[in-house]
Amino acid sequence: MKKIVVLGAGRVGKAIAIDLAKTHQVVSVDISDAELDYLANKRNIEAVNSDLKNPANIRYLIKDADIVVNAVPGFMGFQTLKTVIESGKNIVDIAFFPEDPFELDDLAKKHNVTAVVDCGVAPGMSNLILGRYNKQMEVKKFECLVGGLPVERVWPYEYKAVFSPIDVIEEYIRPARYIQNGQIVTREALSDAELIHFPGVGSLESWNSDGLRTILKTIQVPDMIEKTLRYPGTIEYFRVLRESGFFSYNKVDVNGTLIRPIDLTAKLLFPIWQLKEGEEDYTIMRIKVEGIENGKPIGYQYDLLDKYDRESKTISMARTTGYTCTAAVNLLLESKYNKIGITPPEFIGEDLACYQYIMNYLSERNVLYRKSIY
After folding, report:
1. Rounded to whole angstroms, how far apart are CA atoms 69 and 81?
2. I want to staple 238 with a disulfide (CB 3.0 to 4.6 A). Which of 172, 219, 309, 374 is the partner?
3. What's the pLDDT at 224?
4. What is the pLDDT of residue 229?
5. What is the dihedral of CA 77, 116, 42, 53, to 10 degrees?
6. Which helix (H) or strand (E) holds 264?
């Protein structure tokens, strides 16, 4: 039985710890007793309260770990990953920090560390699938549409967050990068809105988001784009908030006190966005990969419609993100993948056996990617 330290015990971090504890000894670390209390009596899980902003605490906690999972909020992610790499520990990361993970590639190689980054649903599975087909065909076009939504639509936002509120807000302000005719194009977030119909769900609103991340550098495809999905009407709400300055990081003077508007906004929105215990969600994703295979044009489509698991009371976003992560953890522990350095999921997807391992792992947990060919 291996020892795994999971840094962060939010909704996704808890699902990761519980899944890994089926076959391993897990230490779950967070600064919130409220989050840790849920895990305290779970089999094979030790819940530890510690401030993960302090690198010394991380180094102490992981000193005898076989592998580490980084599930802290994005603003802490890069430094946490750096600390783990410097400690010489293999790691699977779902912090989705804004910095370029390849800045740590030389450091990881120096310390003989395999660091799998962006290992969630999107980025994550989207990268894995593209990596697989980029290996077996000449890909001409890649498109990923993805969103996590509450089953019950509640006015005004019709949205619930399972990540750090500021990480969610970043989706609405961070410029979106995509590839068009072989060139990187940068547009503002929430741009190029369109309505798209999904069977079993209805029409959803999509917009440009900055989810391609590492594949902007690692894979050469003429046209690539990722779009976020929400219920119709969402874009207008967030445009108003953004243009009014509520998402700004620049401090303003409020009766003699300097505050960042984004901090106030996150504080106000979190209680509204928080997915309460028992509230159900679903994750929807559609991936299209088009190109030339064996001299003929072909398209592959993967559809995911995953729902809240009532039996285990696990939200869908935790399942789809967390189980991709735990699949990669087990892949490394079983020495099925051992490339040293920074590894985004597209590198793993290049290996057919590793790709199939992760797909099978998810299927066993009823996270089903349905493939069609056109």
Report:
1. 9
2. 172
3. 98
4. 96
5. -20
6. helix 261-273
Compute the distance between CA of residue 349 and CA of residue 336 in angstroms, rounded to an integer.
12
Which of 336, 364, 366, 340 has its CA nearest to residue 351? 336
Residue spans per domain, the chain: 3-121+317-369, 125-307
Q: For residue 19, give both structure tokens.
A: 């899944």
> What gap in Å lies between CA 43 and CA 171, rounded to an integer?
36
Give the pair of three-digit tokens for residue 41.
């009596």
Q: Which of 355, 286, 298 is nearest to 140 (CA)?
A: 298
Distance CA 101, CA 342 (A): 7
Identify the DSSP state of 125. H
What would the 3-class secondary structure string for 312-364 be? CCECHHHHHHHHHHHHHHHHHHCCCCCCCEEECHHHHHCCHHHHHHHHHHHHH
Over residues 302-339, the pLDDT tens digits come to 999 999 999 999 999 999 999 999 999 999 999 999 99
- pLDDT below 50 — which residues of the chain? none
Q: Please name which of 213, 137, 128 lies closest in space to residue 170, comparing C-alpha atoms.
A: 213
How many CA atoms lie within 13 Å of 351's alpha carbon, on the beta-carbon side? 15
Give the model's pLDDT for residue 311: 93
Q: What is the CATH number of domain 125-307?
A: 3.30.360.10
Contact in structure between 226 and 215 (CB atoms under 8 Å): no
pLDDT of residue 253: 97
Residue found under tokens 């006015």? 155
C-alpha 169: how far from its chain's center?
Answer: 15
Question: Topology of 3-121+317-369 in CATH?
Answer: Rossmann fold (3.40.50)
User: What predicted TM-score, i.e. pTM, was given to this entire model?
Assistant: 0.94
| End-to-end C-alpha distance for the chain, whole angstroms | 44
For residue 154, which amino acid is it? V
Contacts of 344 (CB under 8 A, 6+ apart): 101, 116, 117, 118, 123, 127, 213, 214, 215, 218
- Give the pLDDT confidence score for residue 156 in this predicted structure: 87
* Contact between residue 118 and residue 124 where contact means Cβ atoms under 8 Å apart: yes
